[in-house]
Amino acid sequence: MADNQEYNVKQLLEMGACTNCQACTDVCPAVSSSANGELSAVYRMKGLQTLLKQRTGLLGRLFGKKPLTQEELKHFSDTVFRCTLCGNCQEVCPVGIHLKDLWLSLRHDMVQSKSYPKKINMIRDNLAEDRNVFAEDNEERAEWVEDMRDPPDDNYIKDQSDVVYFTGCTAAYFPLAQKIPMALAEILDRSSVDFTLLGEEEWCCGFPMLGAGLGEMFQEFMTHNLEAVREKGAKELVFSCPSCYQMWREHYPQEFKLSHSTGFLLNLLKKGRIPIQKLPLTVTYHDPCDLGRGSRIFEEPREIIRSIPGVQFVELPKSKENCQCCGGGGNLEMVDAELSAEISKSKIQEVLNTGAQAVVTSCQQCVRTMTTYVRRNKVDLQVMDITQLVQKALRPGD
Ligand code: SF4
Ligand code: SF4
Asked: Does domain 4-112 fall into CATH 1.10.1060?
């Protein structure tokens, strides 16, 4: 059984500040797509407070209450993992409770308390054995390069380079998402940017571990990835995955310059290094949770979209810090695929209401989740990453 040391003093103080205003419930995609109030932040806060008090014996002494049974704990734990970790609750909380951090601590607590969805065991085993979350052969991490139109002889694996492109597990292995690193690699080539991949030396960034309550695995992965980047002599890392980017910003030592592809590409566009031409297309933009609310990158992707001649841009009604999650975050798809798809459905409906021909985002997981929904339901809508939008606008090469 875990103890209350899962939570730091700040978190314990913050919990006591909750006013029960329900603002977090009103914006929660898990609640609105399931019509189940037990998935709300405020329900979880109350459950957590009860759990903590019982552990200290305080509640028992004052009210004579019995500890939660294993079944009650399991019921509570189910609500903890049916959350996309989108951070919308934290964004609106008027007393500033760091709810997303609290959900991560709570997941770790549930794993330590041996009350968690069995899928978490699969995530742990995959990471321990294969160094990626999907049980794929890690030696094949950069095989997508071979599917490019014109792959270079070195397959973008160089001994030394100033820039490392850290692709992330989803883009490395899912055919739908592999188009993103292919697009970014082509743009970097056309802009004469020298870069390298880490190939099989790239291990999971650690984000799925924290989301699954498996934080104790992280140190080994971080140490390995840091060493792999150092060996390339790199000064900068570029990410097309917002979760990898956030992980490196918040949990790795700050040794390298870290750039998300949006900032990196905007910089190249401003210097006139990306050869683009007119692209007639009406698009809207979906802010990925970890890039927008998580990393406060809102303007760069919009500047890129506006700088492509011919592209018409329409905002979603809920955008920037208020953007609604696509349903793909927090390992939700692995734990409750149905709820994840329901959240996607409401996202796609919001997109369709704008009349846009395409929804652009800056995240491989968002592309995967929204494309899966659109294909399964035969919706006439293009889904693409910002790198794919820029790739579409590239002038034909020599
Ligand atoms: S992180 Fe998102 S899905 Fe989870 S409780 Fe908060 S608003 Fe709901
Ligand atoms: S928004 Fe904040 S203060 Fe209001 S109920 Fe939710 S956690 Fe409590």
From this structure: yes
- Which amino acids bring their CB within 6 angstroms of ligand 2? 18-24, 41-42, 45, 93, 95, 97
User: β-strands 281-285, 358-361: how paired?
Assistant: parallel
CATH architecture of 121-267: 3-Layer(aba) Sandwich (3.40)
The structural domains of the chain, with segments of one domain joined by +, span 4-112, 121-267, 276-392
pLDDT of residue 69: 77
Integer Rg of the chain from CA:
22
Q: Supply the pLDDT for residue 59.
A: 46
Fold match between domain 121-267 and domain 276-392: yes
- The pLDDT of residue 67: 65
Using CA atoms, how far apart are residues 393 and 349, in angstroms rounded to an integer?
27
The ligand whose atoms approach the alpha carbon of 45 most closely is: 2
Between CA 177 and CA 301 the distance in angstroms is: 18
> Model confidence over 184-210: pLDDT tens digits?
999 999 999 999 999 999 999 999 888
Low-confidence ranges of the chain (pLDDT < 50): 1, 59, 63
352 class by beta-carbon count within 10 Å (0-12 exposed, 13-18 middle, 19+ buried): middle
From 40, 92, 97, 103, mutation site for ligand 2 pocket: most ligand atoms within 8 A of C-beta: 97
What residues pair up with 164 in beta bridges, in sequence order?
A: 196, 237
Centre a 10 Å sphere on the Cβ of residue 219 and count the other Cβ atoms it contains: 11
Q: How would you list the strands of the sheet with 163-166, edge to edge? A: 195-196, 163-166, 236-239, 257-260
Q: Reduce the DSSP state of residue 353 to 3 states and report it.
A: coil
At 196, phi and psi to the nearest 5? -135, 155
Of the options 3.40.1160.10, 3.40.50.1860, 3.40.50.2300, 3.60.110.10, the CATH number for the domain spanning 276-392: 3.40.50.1860
Tell how far CA 343 is from the center of its chain. Answer: 15
